[in-house]
Structure formats: structure tokens, C-alpha cells
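Predict structure. Input: D-alanyl-D-alanine carboxypeptidase, 421 residues.
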Amino acid sequence: MNVAQNLKTRLFAGAFLLLMGGSASARYAAIVIDADSGRIVHEVEATQRWYPASLTKVMTIYMTFAAIEAGRLQLHDTLSVSAHAARQPTSKLGLRQGQTISVENAIMAVTTRSANDAAVVLAERLGGSESQFAAMMTRQAQSMGMYNSAFQNASGLPDEGQISSARDLALLSAALIRDFPQYYRYFSATEFAYKGRVLPNTNKILKTYPDADGLKTGFTCGSGYNLIASARRGGRRLIGVLLGAHSSAERFRQMANLLDLGFEKSQLGAYGMPVAQLRDANFTPPPFQLSSNRCAGSAEQMGADSGSVRSEPILIKPGKSARLADKRTLKTKSPKSHAANEHWTVMLGDHSRKIDADVNLKQARYALGPAAKTGQPHVVRIKTKGALLWRTEWMNLNSTQARDFCKKLRARGRDCTLLPG
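Output follows.
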């Protein structure tokens, strides 16, 4: 069996395990942290391994900033474009072999346009080759406590070994803002002027969410539509990471809900543990987020399934401001319509070990059958009376769905508690 066939076989095996395994069934991963304290405000499957796509470039730029601060690189230095850099697929700036570009323009091309060719130019200058730079990235990630991360390239292009998690990417983003505040402005720029062209930033959260001031988008068929966003409100900075949206519009819309929820909880002082302490021994392979019939290109060759089991939209409970807007809208609607927009949670039980909570969630999935495609299941780490417990929940249901869930579960002899949102 040649290398390509072996890779394809392993990818399909990983995809099969994801479809069958309990903890791998997360349809998306997300986390919100307070940037100053590093404490978690909200998280869903934040340690689940995921393909980072172009969120990889945050590490590429972090290491570029570190080289500048160490005096190994200057913003005005000129970099040469290699044949390898010029061959990179889109998204790209369109650099040609033998051309030169300044360090600052390469940074801007990466942060605003997610340019793969510019990322490789920086990598080759700092590492000698892209593969050597990727090894440097992985070592840097490990030194920062990014234990679920490994890198094979500087851009985030598809590779089964290019992995990270929402937790790790939040750690990285917080470190970038903390360590290099003088350079963070490159992630805030709404456009990039280059050779007579004005190129808009691909990160639309900068225009759609009033408090947002950075960071980065990412997309591959395997990862889905990813987004890191940072926002400041009332002197408080939050960092949100969302992995696995099914469209570009969905990632921006749900990130706004995620940040709203984060600001609401942080105002109440509802902080969890420091993000660095969130550890998980689950080494399940990353999900392949978009099925082959929903993603162009070599999706099947990269391990995509042929169905659409992960095509239902993400629904993150919006924060206070979004709920107030909903109430204004609902004044013109009937009581039945209001009930359909309620958010209910079904509690499935508490466990002293996470593995037992994962098993409970998997068994509930089987008991629910097709109804399991509704809402969002997850496992929450809680403390009660000094004891550490793992709670299984099913969130984002309306009242009718929640009651139907409990009816099905109780018919199978399973515990079920309804909690209105």
C-alpha cells in the first residue's frame, strides 16, 4: 500500500470512529475566556481535537512577533518568495517566485487576507523550511500548554497531523494579546493596501459585532468554518473560539451569541477554572465536519462521509442583549411562537468520573434515536459540596422537544430532569 492509500485508509477509519464514538459526536466546539484572568466563562467540548485550518496562522504570526521582539527580524526586512511559497493554493496574495515582500506586508497579508503564500514566506525565513518551522510551532505550542496541538505546516492547509482544540487556540490567542499588545493591531485592521489594491479583511466579525477588535477566520472541508474573536466591553476583554460552523454566516452569527453570553456571564462573575487547567485525556481524532456532498474539492479523499449527519445549524444560547431583542420581536407573535423560542435543558445525571458521563451521553443518544439530532449534548464539569462531578446535559431545546426527550428517555428507564432556560 502506498503512502497516499495508507493516509486515505487511516482518514476513513478515523471518520468511522467519529461516527460511532460517543465523545466524538460533538457537532462543534467552543470556548469563551476572560483574557485578563484566563478563566473560562463558557465552553462546549473545548478539549475535543479539531482541524484548526487557518487559525494555525495565529501561531505563525505569534512566532513572527517573537522573532521581531528578539531582534531576529525587522518589520521593514525584505523577504524572498520561494517556488514552494508561490505554489500555495488559495487563499493567497498571488506572490510569484523571486518576488520580494516586506515582513510587515507579509504579516498584514496573513492577518487580513489569510494568505497561505505569505505565511510560508514568513515560515521559511524563520525556520529555514516550512517543515522545520512547523516543528518549531509544535514545540512552541507544547511550551505554552497547548497539549492537544501539533502542526505540519504554517498555513493550516489540510493535513491529518495538523490538530488543535478550542482550549488550545484560546490559550494561544490570550498569549498573543498579552505578550505582544503593540502588534495586536495587525489583527484589528479592516483592510490591507497592497500594490495599489485595497483588500478587505475576511474577518467580518470586525464589522458585525460592535465590541470586536480581532482575531482570525479559518476554513477547510475538514474543519468547517472556524473563528477566533476578541472583544472588549466595559474594560473587560473576552476571547471566543468557535470551531465547526457549517457556513461563514453561521460562524459570525453564533460568535456574536457566544460573546453576548460570555459578557452576560462575566458580569455576574460566573467564571470557571483557568483555561490552562482544563485538561482532557480524550485523544479521539478530529471530526470531519462537512460531508462530501456539502463541500467541493477532494472532500471524499480527505475522509468526509457521504451523508449530512452534521448539517444541522449550531445554536448557541444568546446573551442578555440578544434575548431583549428577541422579546421586542416576539411582541408581535403569538404565545405559541414564544414557546418555540424558549431554551430548555434536559439533565441526564451526575457522575464521579467523566468516562461514566460520556457513556451516559452515548446511551441517551441511542435511546433518543432520530430525536438526538435536536439540541446540543455536552458534559459539564461541576463542583458541589466540595466534590468534583461530571454532569450530562442536553441544551437548546424548546419546551415541546424537552418534554418529548424526557418521555422517550423515561420509557427506556433513564433519568431525566427538565430545566427551563
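The CA atoms of residues 246 and 311 lie 7 Å apart.
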